[in-house]
């Protein structure tokens, strides 16, 4: 699922059936039609950019870089 960050240059500006804030909001693209997505991206009063997808850990578990790395180092030192 793809995500967009939408930031309005004008507080409460409306486009695609929603009011947008100047602080920004991250939304799923699946919540909008293709026409609405095109309107959002073309609107000069909005700043719209794609948000990179978060990597999924194996087995649905979240792992931190240090914890996973530490686990490997511990196993290697045994």
In short:
This protein has 78 residues and is of the alpha+beta class.
Topology overview:
Layout: E1 3-8, E2 13-15, E3 18-20, E4 25-28, H1 34-42, E5 46-51, H2 65-77
Antiparallel strand pairs: 1-4, 1-5, 2-3
CATH class group of the domain at 1-52: Alpha Beta
Average pLDDT rating: 82
Q: Which value, in Å, is the CA radius of gyration? A: 19 Å
The string of secondary-structure elements, in order, is EEEEHEH
Secondary structure category = alpha+beta
Low-confidence stretches: 65-78
* Proportion of residues in β-strands: 25-35%
First and last CA, distance: 41 Å
Tertiary shape: globular
The tally of beta strands, per DSSP, is 5
Q: Can you give the helix content as a percent range?
A: 25-40%
Q: Could you please say which CATH topology of the domain at 1-52 applies here?
A: Ribosomal Protein L9, domain 1
CATH-scheme architecture of the domain at 1-52? 3-Layer(aba) Sandwich
Number of helices: 2
Overall description:
InterPro entries: FluMu_N. Pfam families: FluMu_N. Residues 8-50 form the Mu-like prophage FluMu N-terminal domain. 28% of the residues lie in helices and 28% in strands. It is α+β, with helices and mostly antiparallel strands and 78 residues long. The chain has a domain at 1-52: Ribosomal Protein L9, domain 1 (3-Layer(aba) Sandwich), CATH 3.40.5. The strands form two sheets. Strands 4-1-5 form a three-stranded antiparallel β-sheet, covered by helices on one side. It has a two-stranded antiparallel sheet with strand order 2-3. The N and C termini lie far apart (41 Å). Residues 65-78 have low confidence and may be disordered.
């Amino acid at each position: 699922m793809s995500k967009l960050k939408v930031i309005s240059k004008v507080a409460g500006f409306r486009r695609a059936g929603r009011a947008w804030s100047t602080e920004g909001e991250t939304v799923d693209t699946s919540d909008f039609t293709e026409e609405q997505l095109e309107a959002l991206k073309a609107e000069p009063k909005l700043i719209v950019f794609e948000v990179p997808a978060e990597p999924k850990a194996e087995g649905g578990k979240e792992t931190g870089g240090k914890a996973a790395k530490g686990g490997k180092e511990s196993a290697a030192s045994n």
